[in-house]
């Protein structure tokens, strides 16, 4: 008769199971080893993002000053025109104006003066210096029109400009903003009256003690002078 011996089966099964599970004894530590590189994943990603954004942040931090510099650069020609107009009118100093017909006048504080004698290169009149007499119509030839409209030139005898009204292209009124006399003439008649032609030459003599004076030489590259003398600018 065959008898099955099961007396050691439990121990055998237990031993077999233990052998099968042995590789899993260190599973936790193995997993931790595999995960170790990910322990600082958050800070690593943050550092990488910061590093990649650093150049952009540097650019943005200077964006305001960059825009300001670009605006300032684009305004240089306009500022040069404004300073040139100041020099033409003798603001912050005085300007010797030589006309192509040989006449010389002196501009100061927006007004033109004529000298009964001669005007030196320092802008000094050796005779009587008096405002340009605009009761003489021909003296308007030495002024720049305040307004040009429909082939007409409008002048103010002062230095504050004029206001012109027109209807359908026809001028109806002209007044000065400072109530000084005005003068209206067609471009054709003006050219007949003012027969001399050519460019005027200006010599601006800056008064270094005047806060309104234009600094010569000037750091604005668009303000050009024909000479290199400090505080003096010759231009046409």
Textual characterization of the structure:
This protein has 236 residues and is of the alpha+beta class. Among the domains are: 80-132 and 198-236, no CATH class; 135-196, no CATH class. Helices cover 32% and strands 23% of the residues. It has five helices and eleven strands; from the N terminus they run ααααβββββββββαββ. The protein has helices at residues 9-21, 27-35, 41-61, 63-88, 187-193; strands at 93-98, 104-108, 111-115, 129-131, 147-149, 152-156, 162-167, 170-176, 182-186, 201-206, 232-235. The strands form three sheets. The protein has a six-stranded antiparallel β-sheet, with no helix packed on it. A three-stranded antiparallel β-sheet has the order 5-6-9. β1 (93-98) and β2 (104-108) form a beta hairpin. The termini are far apart.
Structural shape: elongated
Largest sheet: 6 strands, antiparallel
Structural class: alpha+beta
The helical percent reads: 25-40%
The Rg value, from CA coordinates, equals: 44 Å
Helix/strand order, N-terminal first? HHHHEEEEEEEEEHEE
Oligomer: single chain
Number of helices: 5
| pLDDT < 50 stretches | none
> Per DSSP, what share of the residues sits in E-state strands of 2 or more residues?
15-25%
Number of strands: 11
Q: Give the neighbour order of strands across the main sheet.
A: 4-3-2-1-10-11
What integer is the average pLDDT? 83
How far apart lie the N and C ends? 139 Å
